[in-house]
Write a structure and sequence with these properties.
disordered N terminus; alpha/beta; Rossmann fold
Length: 770
């Protein structure tokens, strides 16, 4: 869902639907000025009367060859699942026989149960509608392993390519005009407007076997024939929604916006930015897997899992899922996306917009093997100029309130109370009210200022970084005076100079750029770890022993394409914000790394992005560096560094248990006692020369120590480092840091985390390293 920044979270939930796809258009401009939080609300949504039966045998993407007579189908590292191989064909038939047996049992013993869908690639499962039957009876079906709910999920350029260092990697793959060439990115979202100029590239040649579509998206009702909603760039158009008969066209803005971030065409012309707009991998192909067609706002587990399965089968190299929902202990979608990585596909998933509290990572972003993405600031915004006497000119963000047209010059004064949440005591007749953000809704502040006689309002942001677009709360009477927001820095300068004179001119909205201090601030809404739940069938209900998010990427004030219905004069562009917008930065980055290193596995792509990530990522309240990886992961992605790593890394409890797709390590929650825990870092050389690394722990301390202080890795070789955690009965709290490897062209950081509870029980003490 797409919402403008709002105050008072109790009202936010009521306003989600009101705000959906309401694009703020400022005539006569041909751009939507929008700074909404693309929310993944924390709901307990479940598709009533629907469940998923997971069968015991492994799906094709993850089958390890343990059954006599059936060879392994899970690809080796650096390869992709080959559904046409003899091994895959034989094992597919074996799985089909098992599912048919279970379906036959259902027909004979629970005849009113309706088969909705079935899976063999990323799940071995059957989705059913119960029609009033008892769920537990399904476990009697042959081969049934466990039953899961069928949950509902929601939807959670510009300066950002420069910020994450895309130009360096563009150069490495032959320049921006070749960046992403040949790589296929699957967008599991609301569909893609394939006619948008940011998503149209007639210089591309459709690869063999494409375009692809299902029957409903074919002009003649035949799959992969006369496909609608495709182009030379958008080579797949499929829809996944079993309860309606919608086609796959982009009826909502979200998917086209995400697609533009990942792979928008280079040097596209757009308002405010000229002909400089580009996605991260501008020459990549796109596949549209529409799980929110028409006016569908909630997508089910079984539809999203089917889209993941189809994207793997179609040969996508990267998947982007800018969606999520509250983590559940039986969410099979976690298994589906993990299996997709087993199939050789890099999967990027939004962490969620439920921050800043701990333990708010959404599903399926809790999955081990995927790259889970939080949101950080992107240092620019569209606004209007404010000129304050004695200070200078700077930008103010627009929102849903009236604009300052014509320009207004007046005295401004800081209100009493300064937050404007109750009746303002002074007479503000013919003045502009200066009000601090916080405590109450923006509408309340502006209404109180208008009641005090003010002719306009300037709100001072309470958080570091750029100002945000303010939303109305829907209450009456609706204030009619103009209102904008300025940054905390500029607002405090105005407050210290109050009262004084200011000119606010809304006649010419423009792009404003922040200095370096405005970048790499963790968005307050970005979900934090640790992940709350285990995956289905493995320690259900236990805390997750992993660090999430894995990384952060620009997700605030991100400019990209939206469909033609979104503004008065197409082509349309808009600023959105949310972890939904951060995720395609990672998907596009993964496409570039795959182009540069086509033999790399998803684990290696993940490691290159995670272990080379940029620090610091700063707090939105204090601008201090965030050290806890459960807030910012390993840091903000840095493609210049990722393209130069000399080794990729994987962590595991021991050297013999690699394969969990982790580039960091969590010891989880432990009880204080005299004990030692350890993990192993396995390094794989991607360099053409021998590299000697210095191994250290940062910050230094007695609790975490590496087994060696130097390590020599030969070209193309592998090596391991054991890392030990030593506990004592009087040591409690949260510990985190990095195992740091220096000596190559890029410093590699491996984040670790542990929380230690006191011996007598209860939660851990205060943070020892913050």
């Amino acid at each position: 869902m797409l919402v403008v920044a709002r105050e008072n979270t109790l009202k936010t939930k009521m306003l989600f639907l009101v705000a959906l796809l309401t694009v703020l258009t400022l005539a006569p401009l041909t751009v939507a000025i929008d700074n909404r939080t693309d929310s993944i609300p924390s709901s307990d949504g479940v598709l009533a009367d629907h469940v998923i039966i997971t069968l015991r045998d492994q799906p094709m993407a993850s089958y390890d060859g343990h059954l006599p007579g059936y060879a392994r189908t899970m690809p080796q590292p650096g390869q992709k699942l080959n559904l046409n191989s003899p091994a895959a064909q034989a094992y597919s038939s074996y799985l089909t026989t098992g599912r048919e047996s279970a379906k036959g049992w259902l027909k004979n013993n629970m005849p009113t149960v309706q088969i909705v869908d079935e899976y063999s690639i990323v799940l071995n499962a059957i989705a059913v509608k119960l029609n009033g039957n008892a769920m537990n009876g399904l476990l009697n079906a042959p081969g049934a392993a466990f039953i899961s709910g069928d949950y509902l999920y929601h939807l959670e350029m510009n300066r950002s390519p420069t910020l994450i260092g895309a130009q360096t990697l563009w150069t490495a793959v032959g320049g921006q005009g070749n960046a992403g060439a040949g790589v296929k990115i699957g967008i599991i979202d609301t569909g893609i407007d394939q006619t948008h100029p940011f998503l149209t590239d007639n210089s591309l040649t459709v690869p063999a076997g494409f375009p692809k579509c299902d029957a409903i998206d074919s002009a003649v009702g035949t799959p992969d024939t006369q496909c609608k909603f495709v182009s030379n760039k958008v080579i797949v158009a499929k829809v996944f929604e079993t309860l309606t008969n919608f086609d796959g066209h982009a009826a909502q803005a979200h998917g086209s916006h995400v697609s533009g971030i990942a792979a928008g065409v280079a040097n596209t012309c757009a308002p405010f930015v000229g002909c400089t707009l580009s996605g991260i991998a501008p020459k990549a192909f796109l596949g549209s897997y529409n799980v929110f067609p028409g006016n569908v706002l909630d997508a089910s587990s079984h539809d999203i899992a089917k889209a993941v399965e189809a994207a793997v089968a179609d040969g996508m190299d990267v998947l982007n899922l800018s969606l999520g929902g509250t983590a559940k202990p039986d969410d099979v979608l976690v298994n589906a996306v993990n299996s997709a990585t087993d199939a050789g596909v890099v999967v990027a998933i939004a962490a969620g917009n439920s921050g800043p509290g701990a333990g708010t990572i959404d599903s399926p972003g809790i999955a081990d093997k995927v790259i889970t993405v939080g949101a950080s600031t992107n240092p620019h915004f569209i606004g209007i100029p404010v000129t304050a006497m004695g200070i200078g000119t700077f930008g103010a963000a627009l929102g849903e309130f009236t604009n300052f047209v014509p320009a207004v010059t007046a005295t401004y004064a800081l209100t009493s109370p300064s937050n404007g949440c109750t009746a303002i005591s002074q007479n503000l007749s013919n003045e502009i009210a200066l009000i601090r953000r916080g405590t109450c809704t923006f509408t309340t502040k502006v209404r109180n200022a208008q009641n005090a006689g003010a002719i306009g309002v300037i709100v001072i942001n309470s958080q570091q970084g750029d100002p945000v677009a303010m939303a109305q709360d829907g209450t009456s009477p609706v204030p009619t005076i103009p209102a904008v927001m300025v940054s905390i820095t500029n607002g405090n300068l105005m407050a210290n100079n109050s009262p004084s004179t200011v000119t606010v001119d809304g006649t010419n909205p423009q792009e404003f750029f922040s200095d370096g201090a405005g970048a790499d601030i963790l968005a307050s809404f970005s979900s934090r770890g640790p992940p709350p739940l285990q995956v289905p069938g493995v320690g259900i209900g236990q805390p997750q022993d992993k660090i999430k998010p894995d990384v952060v990427a620009p997700g605030v004030n991100v400019y990209s394409s939206v469909p033609s219905f979104a503004c008065a004069s197409p082509p349309c562009f808009a600023f959105f914000q949310g972890t939904s917008m951060a995720t395609p930065h990672v998907a596009g980055s993964a496409a570039l790394l795959i182009q540069l290193h086509p033999s790399w596995s998803p684990e290696q792509v993940k490691s290159a992005l995670v272990n080379s990530a940029h620090r610091p990522v700063k707090s939105s309240t204090s601008s201090s560096a965030l050290l806890n990886p459960m807030s910012r992961g390993a840091g903000r992605i840095d493609l210049a560094a990722a393209s130069q790593v000399s080794a990729t890394l994987e962590t595991s409890p021991t050297a013999s248990t690699v394969g969990n797709g982790q580039a960091s390590f969590s010891f989880g929650e432990l009880r204080a006692s005299s004990q030692t825990r350890s993990f192993t870092i396995t390094l794989t050389s991607v360099s053409t020369s021998t590299v000697t690394y210095t191994v250290s722990v940062v910050p230094a301390g007695p609790t975490v120590t590496p087994s060696v202080t130097t390590l020599t890795l030969s070209a193309g070789g592998t090596a391991t480092v054991d890392v030990s955690l030593t506990l004592s009965p009087n040591l409690s709290g949260a510990f985190f840091g990095d195992v740091q490897l220096t000596g190559g062209p890029v410093v590699l950081n491996v984040p670790f985390w542990v929380t230690v509870d006191p011996p007598g029980g209860g939660g851990g003490g205060g943070r020892l390293r913050t």
